[in-house]
Design a protein that fits this description.
The protein is mostly beta strands. It contains 1 helix and 9 strands, in the order αβββββββββ.
């Protein structure tokens, strides 16, 4: 019994990972939960695959971009540029399925949230902060 306890204790100790996930220091991970209705004219574009909209939600830092990625999948991302603190130019601009931060002209793809023109200067750059997006009929719920 003592040997089993020792083995179990060692397994627990060695299974702990000392590497913590590297959180984005510029954006808070806020608790958000709201729904949008694709029957409304503001969000009707989301009935088409590849179409995206900006949602000016006060629950998010600078709002949320939502894209219909395929028949059953929606993706939602924070609208504030993830590579600097929120400021006057950090709300990104939507152009099709790409958003651009006017502060540094960083471009991000809404299908993945990835930074498209990542500088090769050795610094750490962040992709977009993603929220959970689930569709049920005409209602899309954005949360985390």
């Amino acid at each position: 019994m003592k040997r089993l306890f020792t083995i179990l204790l060692l397994l627990i100790l060695f299974s702990c990972d000392s590497n913590r996930t590297n959180r984005n220091p510029f954006l808070q991970e806020l608790n958000i939960s709201f729904s949008i209705n694709t029957n409304l004219p503001s969000y009707n574009a989301l009935t088409n695959i590849g179409s995206a909209v900006y949602v000016d939600s006060p629950q998010a830092t600078r709002g949320v971009f939502v894209i219909r990625a395929n028949f059953n999948t929606y993706r939602a991302f924070e609208a504030s540029c993830p590579n600097h603190e929120p400021n006057g130019c950090s709300t990104m601009i939507l152009d099709g399925s790409v958003v651009t931060c006017s502060c540094e002209d960083y471009e991000y793809l809404l299908f993945t949230g990835q930074l498209l023109n990542r500088p090769d200067d050795g610094n750490r750059y962040y992709d977009m902060l993603e929220y959970r997006a689930t569709g049920n009929g005409n209602i899309i719920t954005i949360s985390n």
